[in-house]
Amino acid sequence: MTDAPPEADRAPGAPHPRETARLFGQADAEAEFLDALGAGRLHHAWLITGPRGVGKATLAWRIARFLLAAPAQTGGLFDGPAAAPPQSLDIDPDHPVAHRLRALSEPRLHLLRRAWDADRERLRQEITVDQVRRLKEFFELSAADGGRRVAIVDAADALNPNAANALLKLLEEPPPDAVLLLVCHQPARLLPTILSRCRALRCAALAPEDIARALAQADIEAPDNAEALAALSAGSVGGALRLITLDGLTLYADLLAVFADPRDRQRALKLAESVTGRAAADRFDLLLQLFDLLLARLARTGVAGPSQPQAAPDEAALLARLAPGPAAGRRWAELQQSLGARARHGRAVNLDPAALILDMVLKIHDMAAETAA
């Protein structure tokens, strides 16, 4: 039996958003959608934005499940004078629509995401115009029951230019009883004309307790230091899962230790060598992300004092020593930009990971010496 190919919209090690029962930390976004729905102002296109991994796709699937399970009525979902506005997007998990969505067999839903390239055995990097044309064909077909149809685009950032223009035409002339849900990590990458034709729903970063509950729902054991996990993941469940999988809390502590004692070159070398080789590619990417995070936290420390909560033991004292004031904070911010560009270039030209990490360590050591002076 051939294994199913990877899904572009599923985080490694986590359940797919269509399988997620509850959404944590996004009550405001849900309430905004329900208010519009209850008032008969259901827009034909919704742009669901926010940081990666905070539940945008889960919200899109909750909305789709609710809309397809509830009867559509002329003039709005709840037209009758006696009908109460909806208070929740929850539906019975045994509802036929819920079963069909989990099985990806609901005929009134179309999922638009990056496809699997069987020839190259990898996910495509973009959503293509041919995929958007199939979405248009889906809307041209009559729904079996004459009711509402829903499309989820995850993520709209992945649309190539031709695909984006094709989707724009759909948004300009929306089919009747159609709702498009566009999950988007970076709205600035979309065409302004697409943005202008969508109503935005903003999902916020999650609090530590919401991250812990979301991980528990996915049967993932979280580390004891939930606040440090939330700080390093920027309030993202997806980011937290990656940190847990790759032991990111320990990796960040090791990174801090390198800068706590600049004389210990062996520690820096050990850190650099830990991200070499194909098997360590994900760990290398995470370390580059943690470098960027460290520099951002140093910049903020110089301007506003140490970030809370601490992301590792003794972090606050180290950051305060390296960034004693606003001038130092500005210099760390500048270094964050230059090292970020350097890291991206190094990745693009396949620079040796250990060499790139050691170079970044030296640049930060030099900056630390300058700020101390």
What would your notes on this structure say?
The protein is α/β, with parallel strands linked by helices. The protein folds into two domains: 17-202, Rossmann fold, CATH 3.40.50; 246-372. It contains 15 helices and seven strands. The chain has a five-stranded parallel β-sheet, sandwiched between helices. A two-stranded antiparallel sheet has the order 3-4. Helix 12 (281-304) packs antiparallel against helix 14. The N and C termini lie far apart (65 Å).
Indicate the topology:
Blueprint: H1 27-38, E1 45-49, H2 56-69, H3 96-102, E2 109-112, E3 116-117, E4 122-123, H4 129-140, E5 149-154, H5 161-172, E6 178-184, H6 192-196, E7 199-202, H7 208-217, H8 226-233, H9 237-245, H10 248-260, H11 265-273, H12 281-304, H13 315-322, H14 326-348, H15 353-372
Helix pairs in contact: 4-5, 7-8, 8-9, 10-11, 10-12, 11-15, 12-14, 14-15
From the structure above, extract its key features.
2 domains; Rossmann fold; 373 residues; alpha/beta; 15 helices; five-stranded parallel β-sheet
Look at the structure and name the CATH superfamily of the largest domain.
P-loop containing nucleotide triphosphate hydrolases
Number of structural domains: 2
| Element order: H for helix, E for strand | HEHHEEEHEHEHEHHHHHHHHH
Report how far apart the termini are.
Answer: 65 Å
Low-pLDDT sequence parts: 73-82
Briefly note the structural class of the backbone: alpha/beta
Average per-residue pLDDT, rounded, comes to 91
CATH topology of the largest domain: Rossmann fold
Number of helices: 15
SS elements, strand count: 7
What portion of residues belong to β-strands? 5-15%
- What characteristic shape results from the CA principal axes? elongated
- Main beta-sheet annotation: 5 strands, parallel
Computed over alpha carbons, the radius of gyration is 23 Å
Give the neighbour order of strands across the main sheet: 2-5-6-1-7
Helical residue percent band: 40-55%
According to CATH, what is the class of the largest domain?
A: Alpha Beta
- Judging by the overall fold, what is the CATH architecture of the largest domain? 3-Layer(aba) Sandwich
